[in-house]
Amino acid sequence: MINMEFKSGRNHRSSLLFAIALFGILLPSLTGCSSLSGVNAIPVRRIPPALLGRGRSDMQEITLTRLRQDSPDVYDLGPEDILGIYIENVLGEPEEAPPVHFPEDSKDKPSIGYPIPIRDDGTISLPLIPPIKAEGKTLEKLTEEIRRAYTIDHKILPEDSDRIIVTLIKKRTIKVMVIRQEAGGQDGITKKGTGFTVELAAYENDVLHALNETGGMPGIDAKNEIYIQRGAFKNSEERDREFASIQYSADPCCDPSQLEPDDPNTTVIPLRYYPENFPRFDQKDVILADGDILLIKSRDQDKFYTGGALPGGEYDLPRDYDLDILGAIAIAKGPVGGIGSGANFSAISNNGGGNKVLPPSRAVILRKTPGKGEIPILINLKRTLSNPNERILVQPGDVIIVEYTVMEEVVNTIFSIVRVNFLLNGFNGGGF
Q: Which of 296, 311, 331 is the last residue of a domain?
């Protein structure tokens, strides 16, 4: 039994000495060596600034009042408005009280008179007189014209007649569709992949009111843009055909989205912007008409991916703030800092081995170029702790590969052997 313990201790010491000797032989040749994957990445300092992206912290939020139209001082009448008109001895008898209408919406005022709609040509039809033009006029102006028609022009009523009342029973409405592709919401409203047909009253038919009726401002998983699609089917068909032709014939080196034709039937309203790209749109651009489609796109493609020494995963990029390489590694539960601390990094080890003395110090970001290619960007994670230029921002579609260098892998292996020998010698009662 004593002889077996002696042989076991001698074998452990031999393997330990072999590991130390191997480390001494390889150390000079491993200094500055690359990773095990052999990816020929370009150091971040050599990457053109255009490929590094720009921080979102420079962006400004648009003022919400730019998303709605100004309220008029007086209401101008138009087709599909429903008027309440009372004309004594013409629409109503002297002994009868004028009919009173109480609106369903509490924010509207009660109205008086018999319902008379404004026709598509902008006129109203009243008994005993020709049609009167109502479009573009105020209630006061229209009341005076009706009184003049009955008392002076056609002498149906005495000139001192003052029993003519004109009120507004129901404002005209504009029907628009709101398509929301983002998730979230409140009060039981789920906006993911939902569509709404919304009726907006005149002078409230704008982007802000449409959003308010369908769950509020876009959620954090939505793009910082609102699309308004207008026009008829034929206009849209021609646009889709033109864009499909460009996509089909585009050179592989080019980004087809940069060649997208100008579409006069689509208005894009940015919600955040860089100061030098001040959004220029007019009030008419946020006013909606019958049949318009308001589209809020989701950010389903604004993701980054991890691999290598990090657990493979897919993560959402934040919309309104920046995420750098260290933040992305932290989200993926990888090591940030603590180089050489001897902390437990087994959670990020591919083989599920024991503690790592040296965490990985190399990261490669595979980033898509404006064309259809991609470029590997090399990042030294040790330098990111002291050099902000190394902490580049993560962009949509980035693939982050965290790797051990060959030297780190050898050092970790040797110290693993040392640890095993120490434990085994402890169990066997032997020593070095």
A: 296
